[in-house]
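User: For my dataset I need records formatted as: sequence, then structure tokens, nothing else. Please produce one.
Assistant:
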Amino acid sequence: MKADIYNQEGKKLESITLPKEIFDVKFNADLVHQIMVTLSANKRQISAHAKMRGEVRGGGIKPRPQKGSGRSRHGSIRSPIWKGGGVTHGPRNDRIFAKEMPKKMRRKALLMVLSEKARNSQLVILDKIELANGKTKEMAKALKALPCGKDRTLIALPNYDKKTFLAARNIKKTTINDARNLNVLDLLNSKYLLLTKESIKTIESTFVK
């Protein structure tokens, strides 16, 4: 499979043949869905927490005598059936939603999604990214000139570059990361994937072994 190489002005410079082991992998929707669910679960943050009767303040004294009043028997006003008492079967922050998935399956799914991006013309390759002043408007101008335009775009750099990260992080619908940290969830959440030629080498050395 071939792909065009662009410069930051949006002009085509050349065409290259993409590595088959990265961009020509047969798609398996079930595997990709599994990995997507796993990554979503691992990112889940739990904030809701309901106190049980042992955690609610007060209720140390028996509210009324056990016998003689003709009323029901109670040992604490913090029982779940009392107003202001503990909560039964409420949400707890000690729940664990994290899932595990073999590394080979994660890598295979990633290569499948990368291949789909290439097949659907959602892969944009730059010769290099150079920002003279590291300004956001420079990066925004470059993105506007490329096929990805103003659509949701994930930029994968070959290595961490602080200037480029700072320039891209405030652009609407734009995400930036290192190529070695690519994952299925980020790719699926973005319509276009923007790589440099060096980023492809990083992906090959990281995920293809």
